[in-house]
Design goal:
single chain, Undecaprenyl pyrophosphate synthetase, about 40% helix, about 15% strand, binds farnesyl diphosphate
Length: about 250
């Protein structure tokens, strides 16, 4: 069972607010799940074992996020640069994604979770792409919380696609370039219908964004932990959320 929230409870629980109105629980948490390979290497196991343990960490984390009342979780599962990995590893990651859908889709749906993909999942092999489409279609009407999986996703590619779409509108005479604002750009991004990103977590001690949600992270709180992704659990997520709650978000103001 991935999520404890029942369909009957519908919307994610409202997060308690701090004295100044700032929420203590982020609405939208994104995670760069890093360190599967190092986790496996430390155990003299093949990289696939690390990815398998990573998939277990995904299940644990979604359960924990649900308990905390986090409305939206975005997971960086496969970047547009990950195609550079050996063919076998790409196949293994695709296989794990399919296994995850087979095992968890009914639970996600019963938990009133909507699945969204950002990036271009059509680049994956046809069966995987079709399974993802079917999963999104099945859960499209769910309004409890949202699980976003970034697949074949790169933030610069997402921004280039958005710019091309706006350029087409300008070319067609439907949009005056003077009307292009941060809001019109955000509306073209894959994340247009998601809550603003509050907290971005990266595991494994690396301190970079790796082409993930560059626009959306403009005012997100960043949290880096040395924990390798396969070891990430409820306590690790709670620690990230506690760190977030202690931060003072000023959005450029005083
Ligand atoms: C980074 O670790 C992790 C990935 C590139 C893939 C993430 C995939 C999963 C957690 C499993 C399946 C996902 C879902 C949503 C079911 P790395 O291989 O770069 O680790 P390293 O830097 O230690 O080598």
């Amino acid at each position: 069972m991935i999520l404890s929230r029942s369909r009957a409870s519908r919307k994610a629980a409202p997060a308690p607010a701090g004295g100044d109105g700032q929420r203590l629980v982020p609405r939208h948490v994104a995670i760069i799940m890093d360190g599967n390979g190092r986790w496996a290497k430390a155990r003299h196991l093949p990289r696939l074992a690390g990815h398998r343990a990573g998939a277990e960490a995904v299940r644990r984390t979604l359960r924990a996020a649900s308990k905390l009342g986090i409305e939206c979780v975005t997971l960086y599962a496969f970047s547009s640069e990950n195609w550079k990995r050996p063919e076998q590893e790409v196949a293994d990651l695709t296989g794990l994604m399919k296994q995850f859908l087979r095992a968890e889709l009914d639970e996600l749906h019963a938990g009133n979770i909507r699945l969204r993909i950002i990036g271009d999942h059509r680049a994956f092999e046809p069966e995987a792409a079709a399974m993802l489409d079917a999963a999104m279609e099945k859960t499209a009407g769910n309004d409890g919380s949202t699980l976003v999986v970034a697949l074949n996703y790169g933030s610069q590619d997402e921004l280039a696609r958005a710019m091309r779409a706006l350029g087409e509108q300008v070319k067609a005479g439907m949009l005056d370039p003077a009307q292009i604002t941060p809001e019109t750009i955000a509306a073209q991004l894959d994340t247009a219908d998601l809550p603003p990103l509050d907290l971005l977590v990266r595991t494994s001690g690396e301190v970079r964004l790796s082409n993930f949600l560059l626009w959306q992270a403009a005012y997100a709180e960043l949290y880096f932990t040395d924990t390798l992704w396969p070891d990430f659990d409820e306590a690790a997520l709670a620690a990230a959320v506690e760190a977030y709650a202690r931060r003072e978000r000023r959005y450029g103001g005083l």
